[in-house]
Design brief:
This protein has helices at residues 2-23, 78-83; strands at 40-48, 60-67, 86-92, 101-111, 116-127, 144-155, 160-170, 182-192. By secondary structure, it is mainly β. It has an eight-stranded antiparallel beta barrel. It is elongated.
C-alpha cells in the first residue's frame, strides 16, 4: 500500500512538473532583442529551521526557474521594479522521508546597487507531507498551501549571483486540520540568462 502511494505521488509530481514546463512557453513575454524564454535559473539547498516535532530532517535540494514577462530588467527605479514582478516555478525535494514541494508565484526584486539586491516572493505550493497529526515532522492540514520567501543576494557579474533565503509554506488556517507549516532556510546560486 505504501509503495503504491509513493508511486502515485511520484507520478503526480512528474505530471505536474511536465505540465508546468510544457506550458511555460505560453507565458507572455516582453519583446527582448534576444527573445529568451527563461530569465534566471537558481539551484541550491535548504534545511528546516523549525524546532520541536515540526522540524524536518535532511537537506532539501532546490531548483527554481524565473520568467520575466513584465520586463523587470527594463525597470529604472525601485518603484518600477516592484511594479514588474517576475514569475517563478520550482521544487524543493524532500530527503530523509520529508515533504517535497512544487511551488510557483511572483517574485519582486529590488536592487540596492549593481551588486546587492533583496527579493520577496509570494505564491502557492503543492506538497506530499503529513496532513494530520503526527509525532514527527510538520502537520500541514491540506495539500495546497501559500508559499512566501524573502532573501538577500550578491551579484558576482551580469550572470552569476548567490542568495540567502528563508521560505515558509502554510495554509493560514484556511483549511481544516493542523497548520504547523514548513519553514526552510538555504543558499541558492543563480545564473541569469
Amino acid at each position: 500500500m505504501a509503495m503504491n502511494i509513493m508511486k502515485s505521488a511520484s507520478v503526480y509530481r512528474g505530471a505536474i512538473i511536465a505540465a508546468v514546463i510544457s506550458n511555460a512557453s505560453l507565458l507572455p513575454t516582453a519583446a527582448h532583442a534576444d527573445d529568451k524564454i527563461f530569465d534566471e535559473l537558481r539551484f541550491g539547498a535548504s534545511a528546516s529551521i523549525q524546532s520541536g516535532h515540526s522540524k524536518e530532517d535532511g537537506v532539501f535540494p532546490e531548483v527554481t526557474v524565473f520568467f520575466d514577462p513584465f520586463d523587470h530588467d527594463a525597470a529604472t527605479d525601485w518603484k518600477q521594479q516592484l511594479a514588474r514582478p517576475r514569475l517563478n516555478i520550482g521544487t524543493s525535494i524532500g530527503t530523509s522521508g520529508e515533504a517535497t514541494q512544487i511551488f510557483g508565484g511572483f517574485a519582486w526584486t529590488v536592487n540596492f546597487n549593481e551588486k546587492i539586491f533583496a527579493e520577496a516572493g509570494f505564491g502557492g505550493v503543492w506538497h506530499n507531507g503529513n496532513l494530520g497529526y503526527t509525532d514527527e515532522g510538520p502537520e500541514l492540514g491540506c495539500r495546497f498551501l501559500f508559499h512566501e520567501y524573502v532573501g538577500a543576494g550578491y551579484r558576482f557579474d551580469q550572470h552569476w549571483n548567490v542568495m540567502a533565503q528563508v521560505a515558509h509554506s502554510s495554509h493560514a488556517n484556511l483549511c481544516d486540520g493542523p497548520n504547523s507549516g514548513m519553514t526552510r532556510a538555504g543558499i541558492q546560486l543563480g545564473y541569469k540568462f
